[in-house]
Structure formats: structure tokens, C-alpha cells
Amino acid sequence: MLNYIWALMIMVGVIYGAMTGNIEAVSNAALDSAGEAVSLCITMMGVMALWVGLMEIAQTSGLIERLTKGIQPFISFMFPGIPKGHAAREYISMNIIANVLGLGWACTPAGL
Question: Residue 110 contacts by C-beta under 8 Å, 6 or more apart in sequence?
Fold first, then answer.
């Protein structure tokens, strides 16, 4: 459904730009936005690689498991359907801990 909404908004913008004689501005905006998107993707890949690596080190060292034990009552209350010892509990814990510590970029890999 979102695909249709995005397609409709793009078509309306292009048609409006053509009707008002600003089609060149529409073209420039599309090209500029594409460049910004590529730049953002490259930046995100680097940051994500860093945090995925750090989370893997934390998981291998047992840090995540120790932190997970500290917030198990909260996890059990919020997600009663997840069995104890399931890997999803660790990922949820990593995400919550990263959010509490204010590490916004670190939350994304754990959430995905």
C-alpha cells in the first residue's frame, strides 16, 4: 500500500512541476536527493558495521548475557510469549540497553 502512496506523491509532484513550468527544478531535486541517499547509505553502512562488530564482541564476551539477566523481569513482563533462553530475548535486551544509554545507531542492528 505504501508503494502506491509514494508513487502517487511522486507523480503529483512531477505533474505539478510540469504544469507550473518548474520541471527543471523537479529534475534537479531528484538528482540531488539521489546523491544524498547514496551518501546516507554509505555513512549508515560504516556506522552499522561498527555497531554490529561491537555488539558481536559484547555478545561473545558475555556482557550481553549479564545485562540481559538484569532486565529479565521487564522482558518477561513485556514479552510473555518469548520462551526463556531464546535468542530474541538477547536482541530485545541489546536494543533496550542501547536505547537507555542513548546509543541511537547501536539500536538499529539489534532491532533488525
Answer: 55, 91, 92, 94, 95, 98
